[in-house]
Amino acid sequence: MRWLPLAIFAGLAVLLAAGVLLSRRPDRDALPSPLIGKPAPAFSLPVLHEPGRLVSLADLKGAAFVLNVWGSWCPSCRDEHAVITHFAESKRVRVVGYNWKDDRADALRWLEQFGNPYWVVVADQDSRYALDWGIYGAPETFLVDANGVIRWKHVGALTDDIIHDQLLPALAQSEQAR
Amino acid sequence: MLPELGQAVLILALLVAALQAVLPLTGAQRGIAAWMSVARPAAFVQLALVASAFAILAHAFVIQDFSLKYVATNSNSLLPVVYRYTAVWGAHEGSLLLWALILALWTAAVAAFSKSLPQPVIARVLGVMGAIAFGFLAFLIFTSNPFERLLPAAVEGRDLNPLLQDPGMIIHPPMLYFGYVGFCVPFAFAIAALLDDRIDARWLRWTRPWTNVAWGFLTIGIALGSWWAYYELGWGGWWFWDPVENASFMPWLAGTALLHSQAVTEKRGSFRGWTLLLAIAAFSLSLLGTFLVRSGVLTSVHAFAADPTRGLFILVFLGLVIGGSLLLYALRSPDGVDGAPFAVSSRETLLLANNLLLTSACAMVLLGTLYPLLADALDLGKISVGPPYFALLFVLLMAPLVLLLPFGPLTRWQREQASRPVAMLVPWAGLALGIGVAVFFLAPQGAWKVAAGVAGSAWVLLGTMRFLWSRLRTPGSRFTPEMLGMTLAHVGIAVFLVGALLTEGLSRQRELALAPGQSVTLGAHAFRLDGVERHAGPNFIADTGTVSVTRNGTALGVMHPEKRSYASGGQVMTEAAIAPGITRDLYVALGEPLGGGSWAVRVHVKPFVRWIWMGAVLMALGGFVTATDRRFRRREVA
């Protein structure tokens, strides 16, 4: 019994050491997704700002778009928000918000306070499609091409470097392939 | 030249800390009186040195010395003078220096008020505190030097984060650190006791007021943080289960458990090992909190700039301090049952339940805070643990605590006829339940939360009053400051319950576009936007709204929510207008301009929200009052 606290702390220390090492790794956010190269799972979700209107995958096809999963409860999303805003302002591609497991009022307030960079925000309060999309947590970002095929995925907060080094090349590649 | 002097003073303080750690600790082990006597003077010199370094940094801020990197990053020539002082601890380096200063203050206070303690004890205690100071000063000097020069000097500073340009920020960090660092005192006593291999009830009695005072400061610090988030972040929320909030809440939970177990150990001699462990845990969690906030391991709104070198340094420091103490604990902690034996039905058992619930809650918060990191390390992806997890588990763990609370003070030590306190409390439980049921049917919304809040609060309040009555009524029984402190803190819990649950249950809010002249009604309150005007502040430009509020047609006054744009970085801040009240707060925040003169406006009516912080103030007051009990300072001839 008396060694238990030390054992617990040792486990904790290993975890924290792993955390420090992870935070040094530049590609800590890379995670392959089995969905890459596959057609995006279909969905049909209400628009956050107009709950009466539904948006489905078919409505978004035709041009590439970026799907950004976020929630007002997620601190990393707040960190990421400035990057998303900056990227969306470049108008390179449509950025669709996927408001996940959130309270509508909180989400609206969040956007009001930090600004709304999204082309449209769909709301999935009950996590109906998260499993289909393989969403682990927020924030997560998908690149879907004009044909509705997932081209790229990123788990965790985006940074300018990730957008520049990964997202934009993947986008350019998908446009060429067309 | 002054900054270089500050640098030199810090290095000197590091050396003094080394001296304060090594000589008295070795002296106490070997029984060398001269070495032990170094402890007290070293503590005072340490305080003088760290205070000078702090004053020099503050001076650099006041005269706007932008040749210092830290000043240039966190100040600006437009920054009002008050905030130049608070900017000293507005970022990583300065807040560490504040940490070191407060540690030096506590150490000097221990040195000054410990005349009644045997020399080896005080030498060990001050030695342990010196070792901690050494670690922090080394961290400061080697990885986070606040006196680093910027060459060439900046022409203009980058400005203090606008979120921190606020009166609440002036006192929040110092209060929090007084609490965090204060847990160093019981920690140092625990280590001293383990080194000495015996736990004397007298020393334990001597540490109890220190724990209570540290806990009181921590309570106020956390409450201020919550209050600040409420009015400054502009969301109307008061607790977000953010990693940084959790980092301050974990030591509070462990500290609350420690307060109670210390009382048992001091009075009955039981739970010795457990009390030592909690004393180690409370301070370790304070250190862990510092680590989590500063290492960049977890991301959070409050996080300071991430720096892996710092992370590694703190990790090694944590490993030495916490790992070392727990190793010592494993080798030396007292065996099995000790102190007076007690029956299943006794106050000891109730306090044990209190401790188990509080430490479980603490473990739950720790797990939730670190789970994203664990998932990341195991490559399960990035996960955010949301408030629903914390809120659900926390309520599940705290509900039994609230139910058991009134029994504690009424139950006798050692052995109690269970029917006696039950008989005393049954009528009051019935009354509280009755009030709860009535409220359930009367509440306009959120009936479960409101009823639970009112019934729980009434139960704690009535039970505590029942204790007070039986104390005052019995002839010849004393009513000590310790009991008064406990009563205040428990009433604080009753007040807090009303605040937390009624705010959650009864709050109303609306968000909509208002053109000047239009109104929005929320229950009995009507808010009319009269207009929005632009004006300039010292270092920002603000759009200030004028909103007239009426209740059932009677004018209540005018509120001025603001939207500020800071000159230095263009950062936009929402300054909500709040009309505070005992039974409700009115809260108006200005959103975006929507064209055509209309604005997005958000209005809240938040009933009883103030009670959350009043409850916390009562709890802290309870801690301070308890600390004044003369019994803790009585000298005993050994």
Give the gist of this structure.
With 178 residues, chain A is α/β, with parallel strands linked by helices. Chain A has six helices and seven strands; from the N terminus they run H-E-E-H-E-H-E-H-E-H-E-E-H.
Question: How would you describe the overall organization of this protein?
Answer:
The complex is a heterodimer of chains A (178) and B (638). In chain A, the strands form 2 sheets. A 5-stranded mixed sheet of chain A has the order 5-4-3-6-7, covered by helices on one side. A two-stranded antiparallel sheet of chain A has the order 1-2. In chain A, 39% of the residues are buried. Chain A has 2 domains: 1-27; 31-177, 3-Layer(aba) Sandwich (Glutaredoxin). Chain A is built from 6 helices and 7 strands. Chain A is 41% helix and 20% strand. Chain A is of the alpha/beta class. Chain A has helices spanning 4-24, 57-60, 75-89, 104-114, 130-133, 160-177, and strands spanning 44-46, 54-56, 65-70, 94-100, 120-124, 140-144, 150-155. The model of chain A is unreliable at 26-31 (pLDDT under 50). Among the domains of chain B are: 1-165, Up-down Bundle (Four Helix Bundle (Hemerythrin (Met), subunit A)); 405-506 and 612-616, no CATH class; 509-608, no CATH class. Helix content of chain B is 62%, strand content 11%. Chain B has 20 helices and 10 strands. Chain B has helices at residues 2-30, 33-36, 39-62, 69-74, 81-86, 92-112, 119-143, 167-182, 184-196, 201-232, 243-268, 272-294, 308-332, 347-377, 387-404, 407-410, 419-442, 447-473, 481-506, 610-627; strands at 508-514, 519-522, 525-536, 540-551, 554-559, 562-566, 572-575, 577-579, 584-593, 599-607. In chain B, strands 2, 3, 4, 5, 6 and 7 form a 6-stranded antiparallel sheet that branches. In chain B, strands 1-10-9-8 form a 4-stranded antiparallel sheet, covered by helices on one side. In chain B, strand 6 (562-566) and strand 7 (572-575) form a beta hairpin. The longest helix of chain B is centred in the middle third of the chain and has 32 residues, at 201-232. The termini of chain B are far apart. The model of chain B is unreliable at 300-305 (pLDDT under 50). Chains A and B meet through helix 1, helix 3 and helix 4 of A and helix 12, helix 13 and helix 14 of B.
